Amino acid sequence: YPRLYRETQRDCFLNSKTFGYWVARASIQAIIVFFFTTTIFDASASLRNGQPIGYFSISIAAYTCCISVQSFNIFFASSNVTLFNHLAIWGTFLFYFLLSTACSFIPSLNIFYVMVTHLVDACFWFHILIVTVTALLPFISID
């Protein structure tokens, strides 16, 4: 079906302006995730049980925000929301949390139940909510 791909071959959908927009958007969202995560989970902070927050905690919080922001980017960029969209987005969250929790129980990975500790911490969930909304809100209001 060569006629089907003519628009793509003429660069109608992904031109340099569109590519630059998405690169700038991703860069701004990455900066928001980084600075919010390092500010909320700074080196002097500790979890509710008194454990200090280390690099594993900060990295899991940041990566969880990246998963959340990118999943909702896909959701809001979709022109039609179907059952497949919902399954892909919520399945991504479910798979990520299950895999991260399972990896927390493997002693050879040395992540010491970090995800399990975060799942019961309200600050972690609040962090995900705040960062996701902050990273997406400017672009949702523009689009």
Q: Give the percentage of residues in beta strands.
A: under 5%
Tell me the helix content.
over 70%
Overall geometry: elongated
Separation of termini? 32 Å
Structural class: mainly alpha
Could you tell me the number of beta strands? 0
Biggest sheet architecture: none
- Count of individual helical segments: 6
| Overall pLDDT metric | 85
SSE pattern: HHHHHH
- The unreliable regions are none
What Rg, in angstroms, do the CA atoms define?
18 Å
Give the key terms.
single chain; 6 helices; mainly alpha; 143 residues
Could you walk me through the main structural features you see in this protein, from its secondary elements to its overall organization?
It contains six helices and no strands. The model has no long low-confidence stretch (mean pLDDT about 85). It has about 140 residues and is mainly alpha-helical.
